[in-house]
Amino acid sequence: xxxxxxxxxxxxxxxxxxxxxxxxxxxxxxxxxxxxxxxxxxxxxxxxxxxxxxxxxxxxxxxxxxxxxxxxxxxxxxxxxxxxxxxxxxxxxxxxxxxxxxxxxxxxxxxxxxxxxxxxx
Length: 121
Known about the structure:
By secondary structure, this protein is an alpha+beta fold. 28% of the residues lie in helices and 25% in strands. The protein is built from three helices and four strands. A four-stranded mixed beta sheet has the order 1-2-3-4. It starts with a strand and ends in a 10-residue tail after the last helix.
């Protein structure tokens, strides 16, 4: 089953393609990835924390903890880098059924946080 990215957004920026942070070196937010099968209208949302090192440094720790769970860390905020990485993950997540695709997306986005997914160019 072929997958398509329908949108990448945040609460404050419904279209990250045309949005830019004040400082591309200091960014931290939860990004909504709307992904669905192609063809079709079905879309599921996946939430991914994205930050730069400076953005993480500005976050206020709670009980000494800055972040829990997976965080995609970018050297600087660049939508094209984010889009290319998400596109790579989406392509790698394609499977025979929608349920298998969702399981693959969960695994790639949230499962193994100790390795990186390198994009071949």
